[in-house]
Amino acid sequence: MKNLPMLIFALILFNSCSPKDGGFVLQKSNGTINQLLVVMDHNLWKGVEGDELRKVTGEEVLGLPQREPQFDVTQIPVKAFQNLFTSQSKVLIVKLGDKDEYTIQKDKYAAPQTIITITAKDKEGLGKIIGENKEEIIKTFKEVDIYRVQKKLREKQFDTKTLKTLQNIGMDLEIPASYKLVDDTGDFLWMRNKIKQGQSINLLVYQLPINSIDDELGKNIVSTRDTIGKKYIPGQFDGTYLITEAAYSPHTFVVEMEGKKTFETRGKWEVKGDFMAGPFLNYTLVDKPNNRLIVIEGFAYAPTTNKRDFMFEVEAILKTLTIK
Q1: For residue 55, how far is the Cα from the chain centroid?
Q2: What value does the mean pLDDT take over residues 97-104?
Q3: DSSP string, 93-149
Q4: Is the Cα dihedral 210, 281, 275, 301 positive or negative?
Q5: Contact in structure between 125 and 100 (CB atoms under 8 Å)
Q6: DSSP letters along 273-309, please?
Q7: C-alpha–C-alpha distance, residues 260 and 249, integer Å
Q8: What are the C-alpha distances in Å from 160 to residues 148, 156, 163, 185?
Q9: Which of 172, 177, 178, 309 is deepest in the core (most CB within 10 A)?
Q10: What span, in angstroms and rounded, lies between the C-alpha atoms of 103 and 105?
């Protein structure tokens, strides 16, 4: 039995290898969405370099009623980055070194995992690299969480083939089974996930003809939302309905979805004639070959509760859009 230890080692090695690529199977990563582990020594974290980094991690998420940061941050010194800490899904390492460098590593200690490392020869260099890569840092870590949320939501799906509006438009969304049908006219779809009493996440889908150059330029998104709200989304009292909050100008950006020019709009909704309100995320796709706008939207209602993570779920779902 003198070879028993070697046999055990061989079995462990065999079971740790991936039959797909011949490498070692990584442990499953930890961490909740929008949670970030910052590996940075205390003297840097408390200094100007830390202030520069907090401008990134603490940047306000657009379109929310209350101020909420991009990430909830846990900070540890470089020497502490070992054991359980190495399995975190999103890690940002900031340290002094022999050269100025910005690197991204995927699945180094766990999967899925993204590690961004910022190294500079001096403190001034650290601040400069952080500032130059601000948008890239946020985008990279958001993509990790979008993937993780989508994977989780796919575990149990609603049968979207039964939805007339999606079939008429010629599109699909990966909608979790926790969402229940509110309305499906063939022209307008409304689904709702009741999280708990008095809280819900809602999804809307519809299409409209392109009637003017302003439609193509995204100048009618707010007026269109208000028209759709009045027609399809009533409030709890007679004569009340959902509109875009008049006192808050939405933020609109040009992005791309399904190879089409798309307007991403983040803002706040309210109920005309009532005191209900909350955030919304709207994607309006310009489908010029078919002379139409495809609109997919999500909005949350959760008074007295932070809504960042609710809207992150909305974004993850909407980004599963496919046009047939």
Answers
A1: 19
A2: 96
A3: EEEE-SS-EEEEEESSSEES-EEEEEEESSHHHHHHHHHHTHHHHHHHHHHHHHHHH
A4: positive
A5: yes
A6: TSS-EEEEEEEEEEEGGGTEEEEEEEEEE-TTS--HH
A7: 25
A8: 21, 12, 5, 14
A9: 309
A10: 7
> Pairing relation of β-strands 251-257 and 260-272?
antiparallel
**Quick one: CA dihedral 268, 269, 273, 275, positive or negative?**
negative
What are the structure tokens assigned to 241, written together? 């309905």
Residue 96 has, within 13 A of its CA and on its CB side, a CA count of: 11
The SS3 of residue 206 is: strand
Peptide bond into 112 cis (omega under 30): yes
DSSP 8-class letter at 234 = B
Phi, psi of 5 (to 5 degrees): -60, -40
Residue where the block lists tokens 């269109």: 224
Q: Which two tokens stand for residue 26?
A: 């990584």
Is residue 286 a contact partner of residue 293, using CB atoms and an 8 Å limit?
Answer: yes
What is the DSSP secondary structure assignment for residue 61, as one 8-state letter? P
Length of the chain: 324
Cross-strand bridge partners of residue 203: 191, 298
pLDDT tens digits, 228-267:
999 999 998 999 999 999 888 999 999 999 999 999 999 9
CA 299 to chain centre: 14
- Distance in angstroms (rounded) separating the CA atoms of residues 100 and 105: 16
> What is the four-CA torsion angle of 16, 21, 27, 33, rounded to 10 degrees?
-170
Dihedral, 154, 155, 161, 166 alpha carbons, nearest 10? -30
Name the amino acid, one letter, at 161. K
* SS3 state at 265: strand
Kindly indicate the confidence band of residue 81, based on its pLDDT and cuts at 50, 70 and 90: very high
CA end-to-end span of the chain = 62
Residue whose entry in the numeric block shows the structure tokens 């046999």: 7
pLDDT band for position 23 (cuts 50, 70, 90): low
